[in-house]
Amino acid sequence: MNPASRKAGIEARAEVRRAVRSWFEGQGFLEVETPARVPSPGQEVHLEAIPAGGERYLITSPEYHMKRLVAAGLPRIVQICRCWRAGERGSHHEPEFTMIEWYRAGAGLDEIACDCEALIEVAARAVGHWPVVDVPAGRAREGKPEKLAVEAPFERLTVREALSRFAGIGLRGDESVDELCGSAARAGCKLGTAVTWDDVFFQIFLDRVEPCLGRGRPTFVFDWPLPLAALARRKPDDPLTVERFELYAGGLELANAFGELCDPDEQRARFVVEAELRRQRGRAVYPIDEKLLAALADMPPTCGVAMGFDRLVMLVTGAESIREVMAFADDEA
């Protein structure tokens, strides 16, 4: 790593952090701190937690404890914290990384999307790159440097619209895995070893859709299918779809937001299903967080989002690798 480049990345990171904190304070958010070592790091099928001793794990996200704080009467909270995920390493990934996570009680996903637009503006202005940022060759679709306009409003698509536009696939959300595989084959998607519904969907999405998102300007992808609900609530007018968006910009997946599920019985049922899926796939099965489930009954309608802070800095500085914006990568510690 070029020392001058690393120095510039560290300095930019500090400027962005300062600007982000100031923005949240101006919006009336309370900054909180929650535990880094927890007994239940979540049941997400595709994430692996890192053991931290004493039947504890390092958090993959502060989500569970932040929801408990919302339920306890803190309606607008934010946290900028370290998170850990085993086996994640690459130009956009490190096992230890920084997350911005925030929650708004009584808000809808549109408000959270507006927050994301505002934060990207704040970050870009902090490093003097507004309203256009550079996309380096390594993150550009054609392998040549590009420009990305980051002035709001960003593009908004639904999952169904994105699959139709970029893969020619019409998604209902209740297809069998065989039907989904057939759609993928007709669209020319390579599925590799994917055999389960979620794996087939993600292979289609990664192969045909994700490379097309966030080009020219950032893209929100709303309305995810129920099998990918995680902790998101169903849409009242479409039970096959959940209130969730992901944000893509310049070759980066930046944020993942939910209209939060507040029904403890439905959330427990989902945890049980996810635990069984983890067991079937030979992954560690973590304890169900009973304290979270107890808190959900008291949580008001809420939306929340997690944004990768390192990736936000990458976006506004034009960095090609996450290592350019970190003082020390995992193998340098």
Please describe the structure with a list of short key phrases separated by commas or semicolons.
single chain; alpha+beta; BirA Bifunctional Protein, domain 2; 2 domains; 9-stranded mixed sheet; 9 helices; 14 strands; 23% strand
Radius of gyration: 19 Å
What is the total domain count? 2
Global morphology: globular
Helical segment tally? 9
Task: Write down the CATH topology of the largest domain.
Answer: BirA Bifunctional Protein, domain 2
Class of the largest domain, according to the CATH hierarchy?
Alpha Beta
CATH superfamily of the largest domain: Bira Bifunctional Protein, Domain 2
What can be said about the biggest beta sheet?
A: 9 strands, mixed
**The CATH architecture of the largest domain:** 2-Layer Sandwich
Number of strands: 14
Average residue-wise pLDDT: 96
Secondary-structure-based class equals alpha+beta
- Helical fraction equals 25-40%
What is the string of helix and strand elements? HEEEEHEEHEEEHHHEEEEHHEH
Low-confidence residue ranges = none
Your description of this structure?
β3 and β4 (56-58) form a beta hairpin. The protein starts with a helix and ends in a 16-residue tail after the last helix. Helix content is 35%, strand content 23%. It is of the alpha+beta class. α1 packs across α9 (309-317). The chain folds into two domains: 3-154 and 221-332, BirA Bifunctional Protein, domain 2 (2-Layer Sandwich), CATH 3.30.930; 161-216. The mean pLDDT is 96. It is globular. The strands form three sheets. Strands 1, 5, 6, 9, 10, 11, 12, 13 and 14 form a nine-stranded mixed β-sheet that branches. A three-stranded antiparallel β-sheet has the order 2-4-3, with no helix packed on it. Strands 7-8 form a two-stranded antiparallel sheet.
